[in-house]
Amino acid sequence: MLPYLLLAPALFVVGAFFLVPLAFSVGGAFEGPQGPTLANLANAASLYRMDLLFTLLIVVASTALTGLGAVAIGGYLTLGRSKLALRLLGAMYRWPLFIPFIVAAQAMRGFIGQNGLMNNTLVWIGLMPQEWAQSFLDWRGIVITFVWKQLPFATLLVAGAMAALDRSGIEAAQNLGANRLRILIGIVIPQVARNIMVALVLSFVTMMSVLSVPMMISGQSPTMLTVAMAWRINSFGDYGTANALGLVSCVMTGLVAWVWLRQAAAERAR
Amino acid sequence: MDRRTFLAATAALAATPALAQQRVTLNVLTAGDQNMVDYITDYLGPMFQRQNPGVTVRSLGTGPGDAGSQRIWERLEAQRRANTNSVDVDVAVVHQTMAGRMVAEGLLARYRDQAATGQLATSDVTRNALGQNVDGFVLPMFNSQIALAYNPARVANPPRSFAELENWVKQNPRRFGYNGIRGGMSGVGFVFGWAYAFGPDQKRLIEGPFDAEAVSALTPAFQRLREFNRNVVITPGNAGTLDAMNRGEIDMGPVWMDMFYSWQAEGRLNPAYRLVLPESGMPGQPMYYVIPARAANSDVARRFIELATSPPVQAEGIVRRFNWLPGIDAQHVRQHLDQQTWDRLFRDVGPDQLARGARPMPQADFMRALQEAYERVVLN
Amino acid sequence: MSRSVMWWLPRGLLLGLFAFFIFGPLVNLVLWSVAESWFWPNRLPSQYGFRFWERVFRPEGQAMESLWLSIWIASLTTLLCLAVSVPAAWALAKANLRWRAAILMLFLLPQAFPNLPVYINIARIFFTFDLNGTVIGVVLVHAAHGLVYSIWIATAAFAAVDDDLELAARNIGASALTAFRTVTLPLAAPGIAASAVFVFLESLDEFTASYFVGAPEVRTLPLLLFSAAAGGNMQVAAITALILLVPSVLFMLIVERFLRAEVLAKVGK
Question: pTM for this structure?
Answer without folding.
Answer: 0.83
